[in-house]
Amino acid sequence: MTPNRDIKKLDPTFRRKLEAVIADLAGHGLTVILVEGWRSAKRQAYLYAQGRSRPGPIVTYKDGVKKQSRHQSSRAADVYFADGKHLYLPPFGAPEWKLLASSCKAHDLYWGGWNRRFKDGPHVEWRGGIIG
Prior knowledge:
Blueprint: H1 12-26, E1 31-36, H2 41-49, E2 76-82, E3 87-88, H3 95-106, E4 110-111, E5 123-125
Antiparallel strand pairs: 1-2, 2-3, 2-5, 4-5
Helix pairs in contact: 1-3
């Protein structure tokens, strides 16, 4: 099941905020790439099964039905850093995360690295507006 990487499928307000974050980081010489945006309920359930009925570590606590992810409402995205040849996730505490967190805060976005229960560095979401 392939992740959706089409930035145009994101909520327009969230997309503008995410694009501003990406531009902020580009101003610091960092490239940020959208690796997953909007998710169907089927994709969310697939990810929820990981670490439960499928092998691998748990990657989400949202089942896609009873508990929906903001990815399903097009108000969340997962981003990775890119160095020109590879996508990467730096260790927590690295300058890249600090810049991402600062830019998210400046643009009224929530960064998954702030989550105390489940640190999710690549995750960025907009909690404003009406969630459908």
